[in-house]
Amino acid sequence: MNAFEKEIARHGHKGLLSQEIEILQVNMGLKCNQQCIHCHLEASPGRVEMMEWPVMELVLKAAESSRCRLVDITGGAPELNPHFRPFVKALRERNHNVQVRTNLTVLLEPGMEDLPDFFREHCVQLVASLPCYMEENVSFQRGGGVYEKSIEAIRRLNALGYGTQSSLTLNLVYNPGGPFLPPPQLDLEEDYRRELHDRFGIAFTNLLTITNMALGRFRKELVRQDQAETYMRLLRKSFNQETLTGLMCRRQISVGWDGTLYDCDFNLAIGLQVNHGAPDNIHSFDPSFLWKRRIVTGEHCFACTAGAGSSCGGSIIFS
Hints:
TIM Barrel, 8-stranded mixed β-sheet, globular
């Protein structure tokens, strides 16, 4: 029994169990046009891992059989997968709601300039990473020039109605710039709205705050600064049992680029595939065995249960 399992056992939970599959999260690959220092997957331009079309066909079948309410497409930069557009079209033709997690700057890459129009045409919801409204913080996490490109991409999306029309969702994502928890999501959203509107006249739908996982590049940076154990102590000390019912792993399943199934994208990052007797590959996808599965946990799970909680949909608890 790992430290997280021991902690939830203290609060009367004999393991963590899923409740349903509301969201089917699909990792299209680890190739990315950026190389962010907080990336738990260590995505970069040099990564070659990429989901192939035969796996996507099985994902289409899984989306049907699971009756999920949303297919959440992520990466890397998922738009760089050569099958990205046909996959999105196939999902929409089957009336699945589709959400794409974009880093924004990929929309300015050669050959990608028409992606905003593609997103609008197919009513794709967008979750866009903008780890801070201040340029210096974004540059620190994501590299020089990323802030300006991100603002330009949001402007293009706003021009098409994203972030200003209720049917065209444009959510932004904040990640802390160091070993600390995010501030209250609603308070920070007010700051984002004010600063981005006053400086650039741009708008968005909602802000999502996500706690950094001590995995991948972020963990390496913590180790380099000799802060890894300090950060983990903060997460453990900030454990909030009220977050357990809202954890994303209880209502979604993640499909890796090679078809391996995971309880979440963070388990994907460290290779902790679905276990405890449930199917662990898209080839054997069976909702009846996955709906009520026991979730594979680890010490990294403390990041999702710290403070107000953290999920792919932002904070779990609002005071």
